[in-house]
Amino acid sequence: MEARNRSLNDWFARIRTRQVVLPRFQRFEAWTHRMVAGLLDTVLRELPAGALLVLEVGDEEPFVSRVMVGAPENGDKIVEHLLDGQQRLTALWRSLTDNYPDRTYFVEMNSDEQEDESSGPLRTMSQGRWRKNGRLYPLWADDPVSVWDRQLIPARLLRPDHEAEKEFKEWAKSAAQDDTDELIRLISLGADLPARFAGFNLPFLSLSLPPTTPRETALDVFVKMNTSVQPLSTYDIVVAQVEAATGFSLHELVSELRKEAPTLEIFAEPAQVILNAGALLQDREPSKSVMLSNDFAEGLIDNWAKLVSGA
After folding, report:
1. How many CB atoms lie within 10 A of CB 79?
2. Which of 239, 205, 218 is nearest to 26 (CA)?
3. How many angstroms separate the Cα of 298 from the Cα of each of 38, 106, 218, 250, 303?
């Protein structure tokens, strides 16, 4: 294992080119908009945000994977699986690319409280969004003049990429309304604030396992090193693998099973019964290594009618 530094600019480049992805069994994002804003504040103040954990990928991905929400589905060869830190990196990616359908993030300029607004303490604010009659409200959130009247700058204009730099200049011209002093002020901010995001260091631990490492061993490493409050179970991982391999949602199937066999959970947890019986119907031992194997998910779905009948 090796500790490395990586700027947010480099992280975003790898997300855009699909070089870094998430194992499918990772839970989906769970942060509130206040937590996202707090992380953006951390970047603005150039404070540490903790380290991430990545698994280096060889010729073959060890786990079924998915891209980050809002990221391109196609791209370069996948070289890393993000094992820990998906909430932080997803929050940064989605807020800075304006990918949340019901929330837009801004950097608020507190000019009354600071002498040099390009270097003093800034803060993030977010605005809830909603659609009505085909339009996204509130309308002011997409109007440069109205946004700057509130001393706000859209966070999407501060994301680390070349297109954002062009967008910022166009937005600044509209927001300044032919006021040269305001335009100079905005251009100055447009040079400083994006640099804070682009150069922000989001360090990570790089984990490299031999190609012959068994899948269950790699998963054990992940579970032990993951910092989530609620660790992943074997069932969580099988859920993801079933969906990836067959297109079925195991959560939905087990939910229907609970309705058809409501007294089953008096005796045992239905999900565990299904996994154990699913292995036995494949003439295999109901062990963790079997349940995490590549072909277990398809066999589980093939025998689903028998599993329901037995339950």
Report:
1. 15
2. 239
3. 42, 46, 21, 11, 9
